[in-house]
Design brief:
Layout lengths: L1 E2 L1 H12 L9 E2 L4 H10 L1 H6 L1 H5 L5 H6 L1 H14 L8 H16 L2 H7 L5 H24 L1 E2 L4 E2 L1
Parallel strand pairs: 1-2
Antiparallel strand pairs: 3-4
């Protein structure tokens, strides 16, 4: 299963390793051949995909995303919200702090860069993220009764 950039990785994995792929779910990412065709033929798609090229630059994304305590991240979140008032300043403070981690930790950016040098960082990052998520899911499952499907 893959979403957005992860969907592209999932497509590539399925094409490279069909013997290891029984099922594939890709959300918000066209097949890579179609995407490449659209990038070549549609300037609007190319413009919408600017961030993919931006994240390939070795140091610039980390630097810019970390400016002014990750202000660019908080600003992008507020500007893209359908109901701008729904995101409080405190929410933005928390999101900006998380953005600082993004800007300082290159693990997530290696997912975009797909470079071999970042494979260990990607494994550590995914282990941390999924380890935390799986722990939370496990706690939720333990506090849920199967019959009622609600917390006990």
């Amino acid at each position: 299963m893959g979403h957005d950039w992860g969907g592209g990785i999932a497509w590539q994995f399925a094409m490279d390793h069909p013997e290891m792929t029984r099922r594939l779910v890709v959300m918000n990412c066209p097949h890579l051949a179609i995407f490449q065709r659209e990038l070549r033929n549609d300037r609007r798609q190319l413009a919408k995909s600017w961030y993919m090229f931006f994240f390939q630059i070795p140091w610039l994304p980390e630097t810019l995303l970390g400016l002014n305590h990750a202000w660019p991240i908080g600003n992008a979140i507020r500007q893209s919200a359908a109901q701008k008032g729904a995101i409080t300043d405190d929410d933005l403070r928390v999101l900006r702090e998380a953005g600082l981690v993004t800007a300082e930790s290159r693990g997530r950016l290696h997912l975009y860069r797909l470079d071999e040098g970042g494979a260990d960082e990607i494994r550590r990052y995914l282990g941390r993220v999924w380890g935390d998520a799986l722990g939370r899911f496990r706690l939720l499952a333990e506090n849920t009764t199967p019959e009622a499907g609600s917390r006990s």
